[in-house]
Predict the structure.
Amino acid sequence: MYRQVYKLAICILVPAAILVPQIRGQAQPRDAQAQLWWQHAVFYELYPRSFADSNNDGIGDLNGITAKLDYLKDLGVDAIWITPCFPSPQVDFGYDISDYENIDPMYGSLGDFDHLLAEANHRGIRIVLDFVANHTSNQHKWFQDSKSSRTAAHRNWYIWRDGKGASQPPNNWISTFGTSAWTFDPTTQQYYYHYFYPEQPDLNWRNPAVENAMFNVTRFWYKRGVAGFRLDAVDSLFEDPNLTDNPFAPGTDTFGRRNMDEKYNQKLPEVHGVLRGLRKVADEYHAVLIGETYTSSMDELKHYYGDHSSELQLPMDMMFATVDKLSPAEFRKQIASVNASGGWPVFLIGNHDMARSYNRYGDGIHDDAIAKLMAALYLSLRGSPILYYGEEIGMQNNDPKSKEEVRDPQGKIGWPTEKGRDGERTPMQWTAGVNGGFSKGKPWLPVPPSSATHNVETESTDPDSILNFYKRLLFLRHHEKALLDGEYIPLDESNPNVLSFLRRSPGETVLVVLNMSGTDQEVVFDLAPYGLAAAKRAMLLTSGRAASHRGVINLDPYSAYFEKLTN
Ligand code: GLC
């Protein structure tokens, strides 16, 4: 049955392009359903070093991405978020930027970027870039000037302070990457602050010149046709000007240091003023702002939307992203609270900073089934999903086997307890061939053996593959009005094994049933309270052996079932 649905999908796909009549210049922010474009968009995070290598130097590049746009279109992607591809010494693999208004030669040129943008737009795909606002590279000309003397024009663009005493940093703050947060500079005999690596000095956002220069960076890219930004590390933008010591918290971190309650250098209220300013600029271009928002409560997350949606349109719900167990109760709780926040939710299950979802949710036996189940969850909720490249083919984590192999400095500093993030950043697996078809050169990170089975080419020909399940699901998502805009109605909320819900829009409802357990399950729903007792029911999609007979739904372990209900 699902094969028929899929065939039908291909027939209807062509008119879908009409939904995005004009992208460049963002003159049409709303689609045919009068919805803001980003509310209907499926986002795809792509790590440019690892996506596709067009010149076979072992590192991905922009022309590689351009060559894969048809793949992304066919998958059902509406917007790609490219992690930093700007000039950078690559200490933090692009998150240390030395020029905000150019492309690193290892990825290509501004001309290649414009070509990528034009080709993407031609296919109705928008491009979102990464905005690293908290810090620059220590090689950026602003920092080079800043460190040259205490009276340099850019001195106050960064955070410089005297030490507390001989060889004593100004306070007890620590870098999240395992070092002190302060580095002494012998030239000017002061310390500079860096929440990340010493090569990533923090900008001083209390200086209006910094704000002005950084806001102009976003304008530079909007004018080129970029549709928005993912805002990196927004929580870290401000620090207490008195540099008050942070209190310690119980336990130790992965680097073996005492935990800290970072109340004086994280999530300061001033962050929201900057977000409102960035939003004003974004609104001039109908652009979207996505936030890297590591919140610990719904109140915090709500704050990032801003009053009357004046800050981020799409702050990521990282609490959902890190549930890390197949727990219907936990997911119900997260979904209900993000829905209650009043903003448009953003769901993801993986990114370039966390171990791959395939490993975090997999049990080692039913991994492929679980990968489909997780897709069925986050791609059918009310909100905008962000896929992480390779998730759609079931890419596994491939952690370094020894300290010598580690590329991410976080892993070098923290080995062996902290292995760093190389494992989730390995090259995209395109074929079963050498290096997963990513490059003819030696890839910058090794391709794992699982590429023999989990790759685009092999999975494209297998109707039961994770990739084909993603495609069918994304097709449904784009074409079932209830999945796009329908409200979320949880069902059977005390069931400890099966997560079920309705997505309901006027006249059309989709029922989603997900068996999160390793045993067979049977469920029956009383749909009368929703006016659906006499609805016509038609199966839309299944994974595993889920099936329904006269309203009784049977699910084998980790299977998913989708049904359309029409009155
Ligand atoms: C964000 C990025 C991460 C990077 C850090 C410093 O957390 O996602 O990859 O290392 O910021 O820029």
